[in-house]
Amino acid sequence: MLGTEDFIREAEESISQKIPAPGKAVIACSGGVDSMVTAALASKAIGSRLLAVYVDNGLMRKGEDEEVEAMLKHMGINYRIVKAGPEFFDALENVEEPEHKRKIIGEKFIRVFEREAKEFGATFLLQGTIAPDWIESGDGIRDTIKSHHNVGGLPKDLGMTLVEPLRDLYKDEVRDVARALGVEASERQPFPGPALAIRCLGEVTPEKIAIVREACYIVEDEIMKSVKDGKDVRPWQYFAVLLPSKSVGVQGDRRAYGYTVAVRAVDSVDGMTATFSKLSISVLNKISVRITDTMKNQVNRVVYDITSKPPATIEWE
Predict the structure, then answer these.
(1) Is residue 53 a contact partner of residue 26, using CB atoms and an 8 Å limit?
(2) Of 239, 34, 24, 268, which is closest to residue 151 (Cα–Cα)?
(3) 126 has which bridge partners?
(4) Average pLDDT, the chain
(5) Which residues, 6+ apart, have CB-to-CB distance to 38 below 8 Å?
(6) Helix (H) or strand (E) holding 36
(7) How far apart are alpha carbons 25 and 28 in whole angstroms?
(8) What is the largest distance, in Å, between two alpha-carbon atoms of the chain?
(9) Which domains does the chain have, with CATH numbers?
(10) Radius of gyration of the chain, Cα coordinates, nearest whole angstrom
(11) What's the pTM?
(12) DSSP state of 146
């Protein structure tokens, strides 16, 4: 990669050339570092001709909507929030296969953006696609590890011209650009485009998403408390996964039958490889107790994933 300042200058010039006035563009802003950096670059390049769209698809983390809106306001970017949860849950009904989930979500996102683009008068779609996205999504030469929604989910009849200024960067390089631009999301941990849908193994339902949303919040909260207290080093990424099968447990003196939550925390540089984080037993215990206490009638077992990448991927789906 070029030096960070040189990359920023060339990226802005490239965006200006690819989206000449009076052309307008929309960008999907999830609040993650990739999309927020892309939005920041595009806003500097084309100003008010950019519309950032945040889609509340019913699959986001706890407090995500408010946090993303605050960041967009602070950046001074023209934005719109779209409530589309029912559309996504309807589209995902009875779907269990991970690749099918990703492609449905990608296609649904694009349809939402097409509606917003039409209203805004945009003919360009900006995306925060980075190198691992298209590498892992595969092509005629590479195997598909997992289709990223911004690659594998794009419909062939996309009615807009695609612009991807970060396509050749890796996550650590994107963070460098974010820091140089003063983007608040620079240190946010990665969050997948398909959101909690791929942390809910099997069929996605509002009930299951509510469980994994709360579990993810607890994992993030307890790990950050432990980091603040100096007991743990902050992992590169950390979250919870809801498994589709139930197991027998005990609550009080009664038999319980509940879901299992897997805790995942990894250390990495660019996301292409990763090692599981050696979290302290004390924080793992706090996470387990808090999850099972908070969701007594839903979750009765918590496990910790100690698999590195490879052979596993960071996300479970």
Answers:
(1) yes
(2) 34
(3) 27, 163
(4) 90
(5) 27, 126, 127, 128, 164, 165, 166
(6) helix 33-46
(7) 10
(8) 70
(9) 4-187 (3.40.50.620), 199-304 (3.30.300.10)
(10) 20
(11) 0.82
(12) -
* Structure tokens, 55: 């889609």
CA angle 156, 157, 160 (to 5 degrees): 110
> Does residue 142 carry a pLDDT above 70?
no
What is the pLDDT, as a whole number, of residue 136?
63
d(CA 218, CA 198): 18
Tokens of 5: 């300042």
- What average pLDDT does this structure show over 248-253? 80
Q: What is the pLDDT of residues 4-13, one digit of tens each?
A: 999 999 999 9
**Taking residues 293-311, what's their average pLDDT?**
95
Sequence-distant (≥ 6) Cβ neighbours of residue 205 within 8 angstroms: 89
DSSP the chain: ---HHHHHHHHHHHHHHHS-TT--EEEE--SSHHHHHHHHHHHHHHGGGEEEEEEE-S-PPTTHHHHHHHHHHHHT--EEEEE-HHHHHHHTTT---HHHHHHHHHHHHHHHHHHHHHHHT--EEE----HHHHHHH--SSS--S---HHHHT--TT--SEEE-TTTT--HHHHHHHHHHHT-GGGGPPP--TTGGGGSB-SS--HHHHHHHHHHHHHHHHHHHHHHHTTSSPPPSEEEEEEEEEEEEEEETTEEEEEEEEEEEEEE-SSSSSBEE----HHHHHHHHHHHHHHTTTTEEEEEE----BTTS-SS--
Instruction: Reply yes or no on whether the pLDDT at 150 is more than 70.
Output: no
Burial class (CB in 10 A: 0-12, 13-18, 19+), 97: exposed
